[in-house]
């Protein structure tokens, strides 16, 4: 069973937050414990230093350890004086230690308060030795475990303070502080996890909603509902995705409309000559029209018009798919244009159209092109001028070169074409005047083929208003350096 994107987003956000919270919790506990242990160890070193200073002062006052030996009350007082944070009153367990042998230390007392502590107080871990390491206060069986620190007076060692192994003692208030901090950290972590779960659920819903809409819209698009659109609610990647989806849907909708128009236009263009052929053949069958040379020529003309239409459709389909064969070479386009113009001059002469070729280029111009396709381009445009320009008009062809571009303008005289119609001239099956005879106007595919040929040569073709009162076709082709 596949999980929805919202569940995946929720689990991703939640897992990420859990890892972050767990990492922060562990780091804070480690940092707090480390800092606290450093504080306790520093405090113990200070106490040990204070105790050594106190014992040094005592020895300087008495001149020996004899007054202290056996005086456990005085020893306890020295221990208490080393801790500046405490009151100078012995703890209950210290009072019980007075009942043990005079020189035995640490005492063997068992106290409920001591048993609950995780660490031994410093008073339970120190021993005092004379300069010859004889015991003043201590336990003989623990001598091997001691870490000794010398007590010096007047540049000589007068005794040793022994420290038994163990962790430094924490004050009860400090322990309670640590326990309280640990509990607060745990509650904070739990609260953060809860808030993260709520936030992850909210984010999963917010981010999953547009994705779910896109999924539903894509399904509608897949079944042919091209009018579906998505609301654009943000400027981020999801908003950009919605805009791109809308543009894609609009392009598909236009493509579908163009396809339907294409099918309708093809059906219309094919049905008309077929209907004419059928009518003429039925007239011949019924004897209404005699079978003579004129009838055969008429039928042949209809067949040729149908053949031209199917050939144009075939060429357009090939050019749309980029399947037209192009055998490109470095050629002189002006020579191709001149040859095409010479071949079509009889058509211009028959309509009494004057043609002028103005070549402003200096020297030979070279382009990388297919001469046959370039000729097809030029002849289509020239034939349009010959067919549509009024008798007695003009055609002016201007060739110029600027930088690395060749400019060819074919401007004819009246009739002109409106701005709105000029934008549609390169659409397939479009004719400015639908009432014109197909013998002259064709099926409206020539300029569509021209546009594809120019695009295949990395050029530009567009229709403009002619200064002669008619239509000007502007062509740009890249020049070989």
TrEMBL record:
Keyword check for Nuclease: no
Protein name: histidine kinase
UniProt catalytic activity: ATP + protein L-histidine = ADP + protein N-phospho-L-histidine
Annotated source species: Candidatus Methylobacter titanis
Enzyme Commission numbers on file: 2.7.13.3
Superkingdom of the source species: Bacteria
Residues covered by the Histidine kinase domain: 265-481
A single Gene Ontology CC term: plasma membrane
Single annotated GO MF: ATP binding
Enzyme class: transferase
């Amino acid at each position: 069973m596949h999980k929805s994107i919202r569940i995946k987003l929720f689990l991703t956000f939640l897992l990420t937050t859990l890892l972050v919270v767990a990492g922060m919790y562990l780091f804070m506990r480690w940092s707090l414990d480390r800092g606290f242990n450093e504080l306790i160890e520093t405090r113990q070193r200070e106490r040990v230093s204070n105790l050594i200073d106190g014992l040094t002062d005592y020895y300087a006052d008495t001149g020996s350890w004899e007054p202290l030996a056996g005086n456990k009350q005085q020893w306890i007082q020295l221990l208490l004086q080393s801790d500046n944070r405490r009151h100078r009153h012995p703890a209950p367990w210290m009072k019980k230690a007075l009942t043990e042998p005079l020189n035995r230390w640490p005492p063997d007392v068992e106290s409920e308060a001591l048993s609950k502590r995780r660490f031994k107080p410093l008073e339970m871990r120190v021993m005092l030795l004379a300069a010859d390491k004889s015991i003043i206060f201590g336990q003989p069986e623990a001598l091997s475990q001691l870490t000794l620190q010398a007590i010096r007076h007047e540049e000589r060692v007068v005794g040793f303070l022994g420290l038994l192994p163990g962790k430094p003692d924490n004050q009860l208030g400090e322990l309670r502080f640590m326990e309280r901090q640990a509990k607060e950290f745990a509650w904070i972590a739990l609260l953060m996890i809860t808030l993260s779960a709520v936030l992850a659920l909210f984010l999963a819903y917010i981010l999953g909603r547009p994705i779910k809409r896109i999924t539903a819209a894509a399904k509608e698009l897949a079944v042919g509902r091209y009018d579906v659109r998505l609301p654009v609610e943000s400027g981020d990647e999801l908003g950009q995705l919605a805009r791109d989806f809308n543009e894609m849907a609009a392009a598909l909708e236009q493509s579908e409309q163009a396809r339907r128009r294409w099918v309708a236009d093809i059906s219309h263009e094919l049905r008309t000559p077929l209907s004419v052929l059928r009518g003429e053949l039925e007239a011949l069958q019924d004897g209404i029209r005699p079978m003579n040379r004129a009838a055969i020529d008429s039928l042949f003309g209809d067949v040729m018009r149908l053949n031209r239409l199917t050939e144009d459709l075939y060429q357009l389909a090939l050019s749309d798919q980029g399947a037209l064969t192009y055998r490109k070479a470095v050629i002189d386009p002006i020579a191709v244009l001149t040859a095409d113009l010479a071949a079509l001059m009889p058509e211009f002469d028959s309509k009494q159209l004057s043609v002028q070729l103005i070549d402003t280029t200096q020297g030979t111009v070279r382009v990388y092109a297919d001469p046959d396709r370039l000729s097809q381009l030029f002849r289509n445009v020239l034939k349009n001028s010959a067919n549509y320009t009024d008798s007695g008009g003009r055609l002016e062809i201007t060739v110029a070169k600027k930088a690395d571009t060749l400019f060819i303008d074919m401007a004819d005289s009246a009739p002109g074409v409106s701005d709105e119609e000029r934008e549609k001239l390169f659409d397939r099956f479009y004719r400015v005047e639908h009432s014109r005879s197909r013998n002259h106007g064709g099926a409206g595919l020539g300029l569509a083929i021209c546009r594809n040929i120019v695009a295949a040569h990395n050029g530009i073709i567009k229709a403009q208003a002619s200064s002669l009162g008619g239509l000007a076709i502007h062509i740009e082709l890249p020049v070989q350096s």
